[in-house]
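Supplementary notes for students who missed Thursday's class. We covered one full example, reproduced here. Read the sequence, then the structure, then the short commentary at the end.
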Amino acid sequence: MKTITAALAALLLSSAVSFAAEAWKEAEVNGAKIYTDANGMTLYTYDKDEKGKTNCYDKCAANWPPLKAKAGAKADDEWSVVDRTDGTKMWAYDGKPVYTFIKDKKAGDVTGDGVAGVWHVVKAD
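Structure (token representation):
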């Protein structure tokens, strides 16, 4: 019975880690290591957000789609899950919610970096 319990615990742990890893990945763009979504689209933070809270809704969220977290997603190191007022969840890096940008058309595009002085590429340490 202990063996089955240990095996089940290991399976659940590996599932949680892979669950998170499906949402984002590291990439190198213009010589810098950044984070992207699973499709390679650049992730951004928004200066008007607070740690653990998004302030990007409606038109903002249409232009800057949040990186959605699946139900049951768990924090993973510097990655955490933020609740949105519409009941959905999104990912945050170092407490800051992360988004893609509608004007990025292909993996590696970083056209959102510096927009209005408040949007920034999420750099991988």
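Commentary. Residues 5 and 11 are 10 Å apart (CA to CA). The two ends are 42 Å apart (CA to CA). If anything here is unclear, bring it to office hours.
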